[in-house]
Amino acid sequence: MAASAPNYWLFKTEPSSYSIHDLAKEPKKSTFWDGVRNYQARNLLRDDVQVGDRVFFYHSNTEPLAIYGTAKVTRKGYPDHTALDPKGGHYDPKSTTENPIWYMVDIKLIQVFPEPVTRERMQDEKILKDMMLLKRGSRLSIQPVTSDEWKTIHKLAGVDDR
DNA sequence: GCCAACGTTGGC
DNA sequence: GCCAACGTTGGC
């Protein structure tokens, strides 16, 4: 039985809270992607993101705004336990062990791009113009990406698509 | 720092 | 269930 083709995603993060360099510190290890507190993004994490899927790592609220590298999904959606911890910054009293509201996945670094692919650069590329990321007011922190977009951005980064 | 675009909350 | 007020995100 052939493995199904991976889906592609873009995960957005503020580097001041978590950056690709944090991920790159432990390249062999999986890290959980926690703290998503938006229902649309939650649904994607819970229902659609699969083991083996590929992920672009985008930094928001920073300079330069860019995709800095890629990661691979190593565990599919499971309850985000940080919602249960009153002392943590991601606490949500509505979430319980029996009825978790929020979900997370595990990811592992694939590669840090030698040069980040900047938002500006992406805006110049006609083939990328439909990316949700580039739309005004796009706030979704987990976004689907097409395989063409995945390939194009690797070309812009000057690296192999892994 | 500004502000547009969303998402959430809460009064009715 | 509507919608105004408010809070947050995030590019510019």
Features:
162 residues; alpha+beta; ph1033 like fold; six-stranded mixed sheet; 4 helices; 30% strand; DNA-binding
Gist of the model:
This protein has one domain: ph1033 like fold, CATH 3.10.590.
Can you characterise this structure?
- With 162 residues, the protein is of the alpha+beta class.
- The chain is built from four helices and six strands.
- The protein has a single domain (8-157), classed as ph1033 like fold (Roll), CATH 3.10.590.
- It has a six-stranded mixed sheet.
- The longest helix has 11 residues, at 147-157.
- The protein is globular, with a radius of gyration of 16 Å.
- The relative contact order is 0.23.
- The model has no long low-confidence stretch (mean pLDDT 92).
- The structure holds a DNA duplex (12 and 12 nucleotides).
How are the elements arranged and paired?
Elements: E1 8-13, H1 20-24, E2 31-33, H2 39-48, E3 54-59, E4 66-79, E5 103-118, H3 119-123, E6 142-145, H4 147-157
Parallel strand pairs: 1-3
Antiparallel strand pairs: 1-6, 2-5, 3-4, 4-5
The structure holds a DNA duplex (12 and 12 nucleotides).
CATH topology: ph1033 like fold
Taking all Cα atoms into account, the compactness measure Rg is 16 Å
The outline comes out as: globular
Largest sheet: 6 strands, mixed
Give the ordered list of helices and strands: EHEHEEEHEH
Record field, number of beta strands: 6
Ranges where pLDDT stays below 50 over 5 or more residues in a row are none
- What percent strand? 25-35%
Q: Mean of the pLDDT scores?
A: 92
Sequence of strands across the biggest β-sheet: 2-5-4-3-1-6
CATH class: Alpha Beta
In total, the number of domains comes to 1
First and last CA, distance:
22 Å
Per DSSP, the total helix count is: 4
Alpha-beta content class: alpha+beta
Helix content estimate: 10-25%
CATH H-tier superfamily = ph1033 like domains
CATH architecture: Roll
